[in-house]
Structures are given as structure tokens and as C-alpha cells.
Design goal:
Length: about 120
């Protein structure tokens, strides 16, 4: 599968030591795609694709589209497609997406609707 930011089945490399962190604030709405060589924290709303080594969707964050990461932590909401080497769904997570992963942790209380596919 492909996204505007690359293949869903090819995860980004881990963030480098000098990589910067980007925070999409709670009052920010992004319509389009974003990619970074550093980590991204989503506190607002993204309507499009995200690609970064580390992505955190905060409790106030929402993503509608595809998310491609090496490490993904979800406290908020994602609807669309997820492809990440390591996925962690916190108790507050609400995910409606097919998930391609190597490792996944789903904490009690997390809501997940979609298909899980493990890639070795």
C-alpha cells in the first residue's frame, strides 16, 4: 500500500540524536500530509497522512488518515490506516483503523475497531 508520504509497509528509521520534536497544538487543524525526521506529537486535529519515526497522538489529538511510524503511542483518536513497528494503545485510545505492526500493546479500556496484521 502507498500513501502520499511513502509505503505503508516501510517504517521510518528511528529518530536521530539531533532530531527535533514537532508539536501540533490543541487548537491547530492540519488539512494535508506531514512528515518529519523527528518525533511528532498531535494535540490537535490532522486530516491527512503523518509519517515520522515517533508519533504520539495525545488525549486531545485526532488523526483522520494514515499514520506511518517506527514508534506510535495513541492516547487520542485515529481513523484510517496505521503502519508502525511498535504500537501502544493507551486506555483512552479510540482507533478505527487497520493496523500493520510488528509489536502491539493494547491497554485495558482502549477501543479498537479494525484488522490487525503482524509483520515479522
Amino acid at each position: 500500500m502507498k500513501t502520499p508520504n511513502g509505503d505503508l509497509d516501510r517504517w521510518p528509521d528511528p529518530a536521530g540524536a539531533n532530531a527535533r520534536r514537532s508539536v501540533f497544538a490543541q487548537d491547530l487543524v492540519i488539512e494535508g500530509d506531514a512528515s518529519s525526521s523527528g518525533s511528532i506529537e498531535v494535540q490537535g486535529n490532522v486530516f491527512g497522512s503523518l509519517r515520522a519515526p515517533e508519533i504520539t497522538v495525545a488525549g486531545s489529538g485526532r488523526v483522520e488518515g494514515s499514520v506511518v511510524a517506527h514508534e506510535l503511542v495513541v492516547l487520542g483518536a485515529i481513523s484510517g490506516m496505521i503502519s508502525a513497528r511498535n504500537v501502544q494503545l493507551a486506555p483512552s485510545a479510540v482507533v478505527q483503523a487497520d493496523v500493520l505492526h510488528e509489536r502491539i500493546a493494547i491497554e485495558t479500556g482502549a477501543e479498537l475497531e479494525g484488522r490487525l496484521q503482524r509483520r515479522a
